[in-house]
Amino acid sequence: MNIAPTYHATTYRDRYGVPHIFADTESDALEAFGYAQAFDRLPTMLAHYLAARGAAASVLGAGSLERDIAVRAYRLPEIAMERYGDLPEIVREGVEAFAAGVNRYMSENPAECPAWAFPVVPVDVAALALLFNLLFATDPAEKHPAKRGSNGFAVAGSRTDSGNAIVSLDPHLPLDGALRWYEGRVSGGELDFYGVAFVGVPYMAMGTNGKIAWGNTVNAPDLSDWYEVRVSEKDGKP
To answer: What element of type H or E holds 207?
Structure first.
């Protein structure tokens, strides 16, 4: 069933509702992927981009204020803007195509947009990727990874009846919230992958391209450094 009309790509849903996208170019495929994500999760996507701007509380309320403060303290929007040009050209093209797909869905389906909807710019996508990194880096589980974990394993084809290698990934992430997955197949140009991405970004965090598979599990890398600043007063001056 073709549910996301695009100008240069074909998108259909399998029986589980997963979008499968085919295009001649990588940019066209990622534009359609942005369109498909918006079709399914537009309010969530826009809320994520607001959070990456450090402005979620202005729409979603005081419950988002603490994260907004952290986003601004870490300067995520500014860093995304300053470093966006450092991304490889093909990645920038993909991010820009993805954002264009989101915006095209909104322009063609205004009745589906929340009242606070806004045009998405590519830097929003880059800032959101930084926010996902920040969420993991500041997660209390980083200090105590044994209290919450995930797992993954691979079995060589020489050890399976079919002769095919098997990869199993289980990140133990929640079914809802900021780290909810979005499943899809995206094929265009040299890009061809099936897997899961975080809502609002165009590339798969876990998946396969038919030749290799990749995933993530919780372990104990040094993702962040914590500092305590103590202010003392000397001679009546701080």
So the answer is: strand 206-208
